[in-house]
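debug: dumping io for the single-chain case to check the tokenizer round-trip. Nothing else runs in this session.
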Amino acid sequence: MRKRIAMLIGLILILSVSACQNQTPKQIALTYPETKKVNQVDDYFGTKIADPYRWLEDDNAEEVKTWVEEQNSVTFSYLENIPFRDKIKKRIEELYNYPKYTSPMKAGDYYFFRKNDGLQNQYVIYFQKGLDGEPEVFIDPNKLSEDGTVRIWLIGFSNDDKYVAYSRSESGSDWRTIRIMEIATKKELGDKLEWIKFSRAAWYGDGLFYSGYDEPEEGAESKEQNKYQKVFYHKLGEPQEKDVLVWEDREHPLRYVWADVTEKEEYIFLNVSEGTSGNELYYRKLDGVKGEFLPLVESFENDSYAIENIGDKFLVVTNIDADNNRLVLVDPKNPDRENWKTIIPEKPEALSWAWTAGGQLFCNYLEDAYTHIYQYNLEGGLVREIELPTLGSAYGFWGKRDEKTLFYIFTSFTYPSTIYKYDLESGKSEVFHESEVKFDPEAYEAKQVFFTSKDGTRVPMFIVHKKGLALDGKNPAYLTGYGGFDASMTPYFSTTRIVLLDNGCVVAMPNLRGGGEYGEEWHKNGMLHNKQNVFDDFIAAAEYLIEEKYTSSDLLAISGASNGGLLVGACMTQRPDLFKVALPAVGVLDMLRYHEFTCGWGWVVEYGTSDDEEQFKTLLAYSPLHNLEEGVNYPATLVTTADHDDRVVPMHSFKFIGALQEMHMGENPVLIRVETRSGHGSSNTSKMIEVLADQYSFIFYNMGIDID
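debug: decoded output
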């Protein structure tokens, strides 16, 4: 039955958002498209679960495409009625329109970097001979499609620095094609490797190792499970059909596998994983393309990765017997754990990453989610802590064994991303490229606070706002989070965030359990049967902002993408009274069937699976789709997804909005925005700006705030 709901939507214009009040909205009639229901019921261990929107899982079906068009028509008609929508879009464009650079990567005599002149849809890849050379365009992805949705990544330089492999994706898909270019001539070779996902190029001899899949059935590329990932060796100049199969496991179709080769091509490592965490590590001496791999670390319960060899021994980062990670030296002739030699022991702070460059070790530690970088020698002796400009995040320090100069990027909430050049011998850093963004850091304030979650856990949160903010509960607030997959949310500068800040908004980012800010224990306390802790943390963060008078429930928006979309979906269904606006983006929202599609099976180690009785009960308890209740006044909701998202497939968002539009009984709009030729994240700059402008407009409009 077509559901017609007349809603009170609008606002009374005010002179300044800094004096915002909840305003009386205007009346606009909204008619949601009809979303049919089918008689689909599944039996989970004796529990019957209806799935009336199962038909929406087939996004290639004509009736689903028609439904998407109808939903988009309603959504964009609504958005077009927001009087300041164009103003916000233009402001985002103004802020984003400045030259942006990435940190240089050295390959032989050449330095590679990416640059966006301002509003280019894709970053252009440049290279130059020496640091003082004249930059030349190496690859310009903007010329590869009319709409700028072809993306390019450099994924591996040959060890003689003669060639570089790059991967190319279309319209935001996770599927990649690998191609090869000769660096000095910029000549693209005829090699073309297809049906690649989640792979790097590991060079050896006159070719490379890569991870690939069998070609999927036509029409099923974006939704069928990705099974039987294999490692191949490709020799330059040969067709893909002649690539050598190096590793496959026919007994375990749902595993990831990828290869790494040491710098001098002495050893190859295989990382085998059953999901997004936990892996086994294998190795063999490289005396040919094929050979027997031997186990180095066996167990999917922990994470271990090799970063380099020292002679015939391996430097390995592991969280075995060390929740915060440690660095050990493993002798493959005696690989048992009791024979491991500790190079850098576990610390109270989490070791986020470690690798070698310039014959040295570089380790990134997190202390309350702030970066600390330490330089060690290969025996584990501390050389120095690298002095960073302020509290924030740093990443980089990549290079081969003979490098003397490295580069890194530093950023924080009020510190635009800046590229630094680092001298290994002196330990001195100097600015290599400073951001040209139009931003006055003195106008804003960033702080870290701690709040108490439901079970008494102390959780940190970053808060950013304009200086002089009155704590009177009348400020709009934007609360965003992730809380999963061991991902750490550290301080970073966002150009587009300025639009929120300049309009009086408080931006808050808590470090929820499930992340990696405090090591593996913090991660485990937010996964599997502990997943509810993540939602409790986020809800407690919202309550803190309200209690401390940063905002109120009528002025609080929550936002998150992917696993963060699950976060928003779960919290808006558990506490619909707490939030005014909800923005679940490309979210995992059907927790009972997520593992049936593309790479969703890889998240079972994080979430659990409905194929297991106890895990089914846990998933059902918080699955956003299955916890919507009829007659509830949910927050104003703008669900966003994209037609080429083959990671978190669109069915999650489709089924969720279908159920939400049926059950929601309040005046708040509940809409879905489906982007075309885009994937798990905007596929180009223009699409990114458009979706952000719509999200920000939706927030302010539904809070009754006018934008000056």
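debug: round-trip ok. Residues 347-436 form one domain.
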